[in-house]
Amino acid sequence: MKLDVLITKARLATLAGGRGPFCGRAMRNIGLIEEGVIGFRGAQIAFVGDTAEAERARIEADLILDVEGRLVTPGLIDAHTHLVHAGSRENELVLKLQGKSYLEILQEGGGIHATVRATRSASEEDLEQRASRSLRSMLLQGVTTVEAKSGYGLDRDTELKQLNVAKRLNQLQPIEIVSTFLGPHAVPESHIGREEDFLNEMIKVAMEVKEQNLAEFCDIFCENGVFSLAQSRHYLSVCRSLGFQLKIHADELEPLGGAGLAAELRAVTADHVVAAKPGDLMACAQSGVILVLLPGTSWNLGSKPANARFILDEAQGAVAIATDYNPGSCPSESLQLMMAFAVNQYRMTPEEVLTAVTRNAAWAVGRGDRIGSLEVGKQADVCIWDTASLAYIPYHFGTNHIWAVFKRGQRVV
Ligand code: IZC
Ligand code: ZN
User: Fold this and answer.
1) What domains, with CATH codes, occur in the chain?
2) Distance 134 CA to ligand 2 centre (A)
């Protein structure tokens, strides 16, 4: 067998097995191969096995990389970010120290509204430069695919501007970008008391987004003081009929029922779910909705962590973990830091956490058939870690443990 790249003497966490995200107990099955070997032909994985199997297959390769026992995993996938934006909100740190809450800051015209003002007045070049710096930092930490939401325009032109920047960046650098239209991220100051009009305007924008193929998912911020459950149901149902897959910012602060709505509408993911009712989490698990947990956000807002052990042990649900990278509630691009938070705050095992940032995150962005596990025929997106031990990564937190990264078979770090 003739290949382009062969990685030998790896501790290979394949995350292989069947189709779909791993649920509940199965999230511990990382498919480890000791003395593992993985080979790429072009952008695809063409061989996975151990040393003995590789010898039997008589593999030749242009590049052979002996990784001396290092851990090798699928490339990391960040399934929830607000990547493209302008400005920063460190002033809110001080307001929070004075006792102001996230929603109070928003209602006083700060928060998302501050980022909307900055993003509306930024040029495409400026937005692109900022987002590409963030992507560079993500790539160095092992992220090979990222979901990116709009939502800092709350008007047609700026929403399309954000999505066009994401589309261009998808071609300009190695990380693959999956776009989500989040027009209803807040009620703009111009539409207070006229939420229905605003949602109808955003539905028109969603139609344009679909025509121009600028996003695969639609999302809404379903929260007290933002959009109600009934408004979210209406908006998401229309988006689904337009052909979008669905995500929802659900029960981040109050138990409004957003997770239950995700189950009802067969959304791909329900995100945050910190305050979700147990019955709604159960409904998500039973409907195959992936719960995307964002531990950096609850850490940063000082709120209680999501009930991951309930989701995994009682509901037998599928969990993904993401950064929520945004300039307000989680200004960090570090998915490795989120892995540490997940162990520490959610009491998830390192195996569950790895599944949550690879295989399950791939299904959370609608790419599970192509990425998220190391199997023949899948895309060659791979992280090589500077340790043999998976637990060492969340244990030694705050440090980057990447040794090398491959995207579509090419070494990019
Ligand atoms: O800019 O505050 N929660 N949306 C919903 C956010 C946080 C982002 C922000
Ligand atoms: Zn978010």
Assistant:
1) 2-74+372-411 (2.30.40.10), 76-364 (3.20.20.140)
2) 16
